[in-house]
Design brief:
This protein is of the alpha/beta class. Helix content is 33%, strand content 18%. It has helices spanning 20-30, 66-77, 97-105, 153-156, 167-170, 174-186, 198-211, 221-231, 247-257, 265-272, 274-285, 312-322, 332-335, 343-346, 381-396, 406-416, 454-462, and strands at residues 13-17, 37-42, 53-58, 84-88, 110-114, 122-125, 128-131, 134-135, 162-165, 190-193, 215-219, 302-306, 326-330, 365-370, 400-404, 420-428, 431-435, 441-445. A 13-stranded mixed β-sheet has the order 5-11-4-1-3-2-16-17-18-15-12-14-13, with helices on both faces. α7 (198-211) packs across α8 (221-231) and α10 (265-272) packs across α12 (312-322). It is globular. It starts with 12 loop residues before the first strand and ends in a 32-residue tail after the last helix.
Length: 494
Amino acid sequence: MSRTTRTGRPPRVLALADDLSGAAETAAALGRPRGRTVRIVLGPVTAPPLDGEAVVLDLDTRQLSAGEAASAVRDALAHADGDVVLKKIDSLLRGNLATETAAYAAGAAGVVIAPALPVAGRTVRDGVVHLHGTPLHATDAWRAEQRRAPESVGAALGDIPTRVVPLSVVRAPVLTLSGRLRTLVAKGHHPVCDAETDADLDAIAEAALHIGPDVRLLGTGGLAAALGRRLVGADGAAPAAAGLPTAADTERDAAAHGERDGIGHAERDAAAHTERDGAAHCERDGTAHTERDATGTPGRPLLVVVGTAEPTAVAQIAQLVAAGACHVPLPAHTLTQHTLTDHRARHTHMDHRAPHPLVPAPDGITVVSIAGGVVVDPGAARGLVAGLARTVAEAAHGSDLVLTGGETARRVLDTLGVRELLPVGQIHHGAVHSRTPDGRSVVTRPGSFGDTDSLLRIARALRPPPQPMDVAGSTRPDHPAVPPASFAPQGEPT
């Protein structure tokens, strides 16, 4: 009997993430079953989740020391008296994975580990993460890190005792899989499960829930989505499959929308004009005269803050500028003049001094990024993001926000004093639309996610173009409809 069906009350879920974009991705995945309340908390949890509630805590530990990160995990687990505990990890195995997992495993019978994220082309075979079929350590996905990528999940976890559960077992009947997991846990091993599809993750989530409440889950947003699907049946009924994408749907969407690693020559040519054309556009017009809201009335400004060093970012900005956005590239040296290095100071006595003022387009879209052409040392990235957050802080107070990169998103929201977000849905995979307590829109997205039209799709979802009126006063469908935000994963792999 699984822990989701043996009680009469709706299950409670506590999920931990090491950065904000990951927390939002997890919240969107857990929020797919309608009727479940999901909150994203930026800061310490003061009470466990309520019945039927999922609380996703951004631990904000990606850039902390190993000791600080482990301490944050231990503190959060003090409130883990719900039915289900999940720790969301980076699908590329970045961050303080070994120390956080060791702290997470303490006090648990075992941890079932599933790092695959099939919608993003990230699979696990023989305990090795693959990115679009290539072993992670053979790609350049860790180019912004100060270490080399681990050669396996076990290697990334250091001294934590693990055993690989191969696909042949993952795809066996659920009782066979749960039996293997139970046996490994009883022997003191933490199972690392191979997975290549969402169906594999569904099986892992189902089997793990059969073992008992003392076993915790650790994985990506893919495992969170599988958990969300499984918890649809928490009242004892079978999980509701209607309307939920299958593995085939995921693979088809991935083929339709999948991006390449890096950008093509045409995209590089477009990106080369981004800063020049964006600057000229801002100087010429003063504002970016882009779409108004669906009623045709002016709304609050939309501020897009790009804090990622991913190669596709320049092409994403180029498409947004081509659609009329105002681009403000900020020189890197101006962003590090007043960098705070104490993590705790960020949450108490924030320094809001900006290197120079930023005025967003009042009835349009402004995109802010770190100026290209300079190679950023990985050790300086954190200071750049902190400076970027301070620079946009004043403009962000009255704006809807699009924030790429978990560190960037958290630093900006910290400056605004935002401590909680309520997820609305996903615009595309990883691009999660949430609301602040005062009703503003915030879209967060991992820096490594999104095709070259990602920012444009997000902007159009938040600022749909007005429908032209015919002579009778009715709208004509001259513009394609913008799909509403949804909790269902929408294929947008990296």
